[in-house]
Amino acid sequence: MSNTTPALVNQLILGDNLEIMKRLESESVDLIYLDPPFFSNKNYEVIWGDEGEIRSFKDRWAGGIDHYIGWLKERVEEMYRLLKKTGSFFLHCDWHANAYIRVEILDKIFGEKNFRNEIIWKRKNSVGQSNMKSSQFGYNTDSIYFYTKTKRNIFNTVFTESNPEYIKQFFIHKDPDGRIYRLATLTSPSPRPNLIYEYKGHKPPAKGWAISLEKMIEWDNIGKIYIPEDTSKRIQRKIYLDEVQGQLVQTLWDDIDVISPSAKERIGYPTQKPEALLERIIQCASNEGDVILDPFMGGGTTMAVAEKLNRKWIGIDQSPVAVKVTAQRLQKQNSLFTTEATKSTKSGLRTPNITRNVVTCQS
Known about the structure:
The structure is a single chain. The chain is α/β, with parallel strands linked by helices. The protein is 29% helix and 21% strand. The chain has 2 domains: 11-129 and 136-158 and 249-360, Rossmann fold (3-Layer(aba) Sandwich); 164-243, no CATH class. The chain contains 9 helices and 15 strands. Strand 13 (291-294), helix 8 (301-308) and strand 14 form a beta-alpha-beta unit. Helix 7 (275-285) crosses helix 8.
């Protein structure tokens, strides 16, 4: 839960995000996700076509890559100021400028030691490739850079559904009571004196066991270890299928599709990101009641997901149409929650109390 809440929480703000962020309190935001305009030199970035958006587009492209990096860097500097010491930062980009962004902006502002991951989001469609002859491979991935302000960041482990082939391949053992399990090593990655002991005639691995003798006895008593009759074979840990939450999410995200033309969440925004992508980011890097900032909110996916997950949020955009579309999206979502909640008092859904004041901060 956030200890410091900015004055503009749960509001959609129209204006230049640089000027708006300067008005927010330092270290008041728990998580920042930004999907800034890519350095792709594509006019489709002017999606709504209003004056604010067109002006911003021209400003970014006036001086090539150096100007773009300078434009983005001063905004990231403000985001760093706003981020709590336990906060996390996710920047979504593609191949056009990802190397410049990491080296010239993120490493310099956050420090290389606070780089956590480069997440690769594998989209299912590719750009720049067709069945016709081509001189290069198609692009079907984006980069999401994950940085923190300190090593004390919030991080909640997230899982995906276990792959059926993975289960079939590894969960091949069964207890007398029918519980299915797989075997995993109990070897320590580094030697410690208390981990080097013999157990029931089984000598320890070269670097010792992964658990202490006391823990070994405890696990043995409750059936969590496999002890071969042949003492030349290794004792192993049992991992039961019914206790597996899924597969741990790694840095390749290839299980989240782009939004299909017929998807209910599609609002007609060409660069709209799927809600599942934001759900994963928000769930792993924040808790209920935390404040989420999206300074390039576009069609409002971050705000919609943050609201569903009981987070506070701040959305900023230069485009009046983007603000209007996001407000309508939240209103529609709120109405759906309200309708579903009235169907059953046991639904577990809350009725959001959203402050949707649109604050105009144009310079």
